[in-house]
Amino acid sequence: MRLFPAFFYTDNTHVTVFGGGEEARRKVRLLAKTTAKITVIVDNEIDPGFAEEFAGRITLAPRDMAGQALDRSAFTIIACRLPENTEQSVEWAREYGVPMNVVDAPDLCDFTIPSMLNRGEILAAVGSGGAAPVLAKRVRTSLETLMPQALGPLSELARDFRPNVYAKLDQSTARRHFWEAALHGPPAERAMVGDMDGAKRALHELLDTFSSGTAQMGRVDIVGAGPGDPELLTLKAFRVIQNADIVFHDRLVSDDILDLIRRDADRIPVGKAKADHSVPQDQIHTLMIAAAQAGKRVVRLKGGDPFIFGRGGEELQALLGAGISTSVIPGISSALGCAASAGLPLTHRDHAQTLTFVTGHAKTGTVPDLDWDALARPGQTVVVFMGVGTAGVISERLIAAGRSRQVPVAVIENGTRPSEIRVYGQLADLPALIEQAGIVGPALLIIGEVSAIPATLQTSLALEVAA
Questions:
Q1: Coil, strand or helix at 101
Q2: pLDDT reading at 28 higher than 50
Q3: What is the mean pLDDT of the chain?
Q4: Which of 53, 116, 154, 271 suits 432 as a labelling partner, its CA being 20 to 30 A distant?
Q5: Which residues contact 148 (CB under 8 A, 6 or more apart)?
Q6: How far is residue 45 from each of residues 30, 42, 276, measured CA to CA in Å?
Q7: How many CB atoms lie within 10 A of CB 59?
C-alpha cells in the first residue's frame, strides 16, 4: 500500500494555496467547505471573480509573504500557472517543512487529494496516488449510489445525540449496541425518508428502552435477490443485506450475492430443490421468528422477487402473525432479468399483447391445474417458472388446447449468470430441447412468438456483418 489514508481536523488550522488561476480556484472550493483558514498566495495575476467567489473566506497575499503563510500552515497546495513560480513554491514548502500537493506533478507531491464524497459528518475519499484519477472518480460515483443524501442529516443527528447516550449508558458495550440498533433501525429508517423529527423521537424512545434494560425486538426484511447478477440488486436490498445479523437464504441466491453479506453475519441455508425440502417452510418461519425475538436484524434472502412464486406471502403472514416487524424489498423477477439478458422482449406490439406468469410445479409436486385453454390463446407470452420437470406435460396440454406445435419457445437456465444456458425451439420439441442441453433447472420456459426474436436479431446482425 503506497498511500496511507488519513483525515486532518481543520479547526484552528491554516492552509496555503499557491496560484490565482482555475486550478487553484478548484482547490480552494474544496478547502472552503472545511473550517480551515485559507491563505492564497497570488501569482502575477488572479482570475476575474476569484476573490469575489471566496470573499470573507480567504486571505489574499503576494508571493513575498509566502514564508509567513507557510510558517503556520498544516499543508499547502501548489497550483501555479507559471513553471518558475511552481519551482519556487516547492522550494519554499520544503524549506518550511510543510507537506505539499503539486497539481499535475505527482512526483513532487507529499500527499494526494482524493475524490471525495461528503454526507454531513460522513466523508468518503477515494485515491489512486495520481495514477488513475478518472477511475477514482468512477469509484466515488458508485459510492454515491450507496450513500444516500439522508446520511448527512442522520450523521449530524447522531453527533448531537451522543451526549444523551453517554449520560444514560455508562458501559461502552451498551453504547455500541444502542448505536447499532439506532443506525440500523427505526431512527435511521425515518431519517432516510426525511422525517428528522420522527428520527429524533425514535432515538429518545430507543434510548429509554436501553436505559431501562428492556429487551429489544429485532425485525425481518424479506429481500428479493434478483436472478443472480449482483449488479441487479436494488440499492435498498444491498444496504439491508450489509446490515443483517443473520441471513436465511435460498439455494437460488448466487454465490456472488452471498459474498455481499457481512463477514460476521450468520448465514443459514434453507433452500429447497425438487422433492428435497431441506428445511420445511414451517420451520423456516420458526427460525426467523426466533431470531427476531432474540433482537437480531434478520434478512430472508430469496432468488428473484419474493412475491412471484417465492412463498414470500406465506412468510410475511407468519411473521406479522407473530408480531414481528417486517418489510418486503422487491427484487428483479427472474422472468424479467433472464428475458432481458437474452434480449427477449416479453411483450411486443406485433406478437404479444398479454403476459402471463404461471408455475409448472404445484404444491403437491404435480402439474398445477391451470386454465390451459386461456394459456393456449395466440398473441400472448406465457412464462413458466419451475417447469423443467413438467415440460412434457405442459407442451402436450397447450397443444391439446389449441396452441400451435410450431410456436417458438425459449428455455433459460441460470439467467444473468456466467453459467447461463439458453436454448430455442418449438413447443412440440420442448422436452427434447431441455434434455439435449442438459438443463436440470431451475429454469424458465418462455412460450410465445417473442421467443423467436433473439434468433431473428442474431440472423440480422450476421447478415449486416457479412454485407
A1: strand
A2: yes
A3: 88
A4: 271
A5: 192
A6: 21, 7, 78
A7: 14
360-370 residue pLDDT tens: 887 666 778 89
Q: 221, 229, 245, 250: which is the annotated catalytic residue?
A: 250
User: Could you give the 3-state DSSP secondary structure of residue 374?
Assistant: helix
- Cβ atoms within 10 Å, residue 239: 18
CA dist 384 and 390 (Å) reads 10
Dump pLDDT digits (tens) for 91-111: 999 999 999 999 989 889 999
User: What is the residue whose three cell numbers read 486550478?
Assistant: 23
* Whether 137 is catalytic: no
The 10 Å Cβ neighbour count of residue 220 is 28
* CB neighbourhood size of 403 (10 A): 23
DSSP label of 231: G
250 is catalytic: yes
- Closest to 218 (Cα-Cα) out of 161, 309, 294: 294
Q: CB 338: neighbour CB atoms within 10 A?
A: 27
Residue 337 has phi, psi (to 5 degrees) of -65, -45
Catalytic residue, chosen from 47, 195, 272, 429, is 272
Indicate the length of the chain as a whole number. 467
Amino acid at position 249, single letter: H
By the 8 A CB rule, do 299 and 280 touch? no
- Contacting residues for 337 by C-beta, under 8 A, at least 6 apart: 226, 227, 228, 229, 232, 304, 415, 416
**CA distances, 9 to each of 117, 143, 216, 243, 378 (Å):** 17, 23, 37, 29, 69
pTM of this structure: 0.65
